[in-house]
């Protein structure tokens, strides 16, 4: 029997969106159903601190992300759900890994490069942004995670994690660190309403759970071309269709493809997407609101998760301390 471990995290930088669902939530929960080993889902609050959020909003966002995990079907009796900041052992492992990380490896990180492009000057770039991949490697390696479901934007971070696992194992002649794998080689990157990758930081996202009015408003804002309603349209070139096909079944996809090729108005297609999403997430939306209005319960779930996660974290760090010679 293969006892694999699954782990993934989401930053509490805003309300969870459809991209988070497709890249992380759905694949994680699907895999957990048949997983023989332990699963860990966490709220990456210290990673979110790199954006220096407003403290009150930050707290609320932690509850939003936790409620989203739970509403989508996470069973806290089976899966360990916790806040990153509740696991102090992470920061010890983070330092150990930092001592093995060549600066050049992090110079190549896409997110750091994007910051250089934007800010130009070294003194405007925080070390938290530069060291971000080491903390992510610590998140993953601390729990000896085999599978890490993430969207395509995070695949480079998994490669860095694998590099660091290899460096540790080679340096200390051990196999303690488990190099993680993404769930799929080919990852979907869901476009946002402006066609760029859907992201909270671009403010082009469609929330997973919001009022029907807000959902409709967001969908109606999706960028389209200016072809007249009767003109045939290329489904693959349409943002609305790209989003639609991730949530629809095979028959629905075929029907919409046919409709677009024949020619129909963008308003009509957007309405189809709206109805699809409304129906798909109706029950979860209610559960989400129930969790969100019970902060005491959410705190209890997160605290219990942290206690369980720390059993593994403490035991693993003890092995790391022994292996590195910090303790004898
Ligand atoms: P954001 O980019 O909105 O800040 P996060 O960084 O918190 O989102 O991402 C959490 C998870 O969701 C990660 O695994 C990430 O790869 C995935 N994800 C985020 N946006 C998308 C997207 N547009 N398509 C697919 N996966 C995504
Ligand atoms: N960096 C991830 C993101 O921006 C969030 C994250 C932090 C994560 N640590 C992780 C994801 C460990 C998977 C595993 O989306």
Description:
The chain has 328 residues and is mainly alpha-helical. Helices cover 56% and strands 5% of the residues. It is built from 13 helices and 3 strands, in the order βαβααβαααααααααα. It has helices spanning 18-33, 45-48, 55-71, 89-98, 103-107, 110-119, 127-142, 155-171, 212-220, 239-247, 250-262, 266-292, 295-324, and strands at 6-10, 39-43, 79-83. Strands 1-2-3 form a 3-stranded parallel beta sheet. The mean pLDDT is 95. The structure holds adenosine-5'-diphosphate and tryptophan.
Q: What is the ordering of alpha helices and beta strands?
A: EHEHHEHHHHHHHHHH
The average pLDDT is: 95
Q: Which range best describes the helical content: under 10%, 10-25%, 25-40%, 40-55%, 55-70% or over 70%?
A: 55-70%
Tally of contiguous helical segments: 13
Describe the structure concisely.
By secondary structure, the protein is mainly α. It is 56% helix and 5% strand. Helix 3 crosses helix 12, helix 4 packs across helix 7 and helix 4 packs across helix 13.
Write the layout of secondary structure elements.
Blueprint: E1 6-10, H1 18-33, E2 39-43, H2 45-48, H3 55-71, E3 79-83, H4 89-98, H5 103-107, H6 110-119, H7 127-142, H8 155-171, H9 212-220, H10 239-247, H11 250-262, H12 266-292, H13 295-324
Parallel strand pairs: 1-2, 2-3
Helix pairs in contact: 3-12, 4-7, 4-13, 7-8, 9-12, 10-12
This protein binds adenosine-5'-diphosphate and tryptophan.
């Amino acid at each position: 029997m293969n006892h694999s471990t699954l782990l993934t995290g989401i930053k509490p930088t805003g309300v969870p969106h459809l991209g988070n669902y497709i890249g992380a939530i759905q694949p994680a929960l699907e895999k957990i159903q048949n997983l023989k080993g332990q699963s860990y889902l966490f709220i990456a609050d210290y990673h979110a601190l790199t954006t220096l959020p407003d403290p009150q909003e930050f707290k609320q966002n932690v509850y939003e992300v936790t409620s989203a995990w739970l509403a989508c079907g996470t069973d806290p009796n089976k899966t360990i759900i916790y806040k990153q900041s509740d696991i102090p052992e992470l920061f010890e492992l983070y330092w150990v890994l930092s001592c093995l990380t060549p600066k050049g490896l992090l110079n190549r990180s896409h997110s750091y490069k994007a910051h250089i492009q934007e800010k130009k000057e070294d003194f405007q770039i925080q070390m938290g942004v530069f060291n971000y991949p080491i903390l992510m490697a610590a998140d993953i390696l601390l729990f000896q995670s085999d599978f890490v479901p993430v969207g395509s934007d995070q695949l480079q971070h998994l490669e860095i994690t694998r590099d660091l696992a290899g460096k540790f194992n080679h340096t200390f002649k051990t196999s303690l660190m488990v190099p993680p794998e993404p769930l799929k080689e080919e990852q979907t990157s869901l476009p946002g309403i402006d066609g760029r990758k859907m992201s909270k930081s671009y403010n082009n996202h469609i929330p997973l759970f919001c009022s029907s009015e807000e959902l409709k408003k967001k969908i109606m804002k999706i960028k389209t071309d200016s072809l007249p309603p009767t003109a045939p349209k290329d489904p693959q070139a349409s943002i609305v269709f790209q989003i639609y096909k991730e949530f629809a079944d095979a028959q629905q996809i075929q029907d919409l493809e046919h409709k677009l090729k024949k020619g129909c108005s963008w308003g009509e297609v957007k309405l189809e997407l709206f109805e699809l999403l409304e129906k798909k997430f109706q029950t979860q939306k209610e559960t989400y609101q129930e969790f969100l209005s019970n902060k005491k319960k959410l705190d209890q779930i997160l605290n219990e998760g942290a206690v369980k996660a720390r059993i593994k974290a403490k035991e693993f760090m003890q092995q790391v301390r022994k292996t590195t010679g910090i303790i004898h």
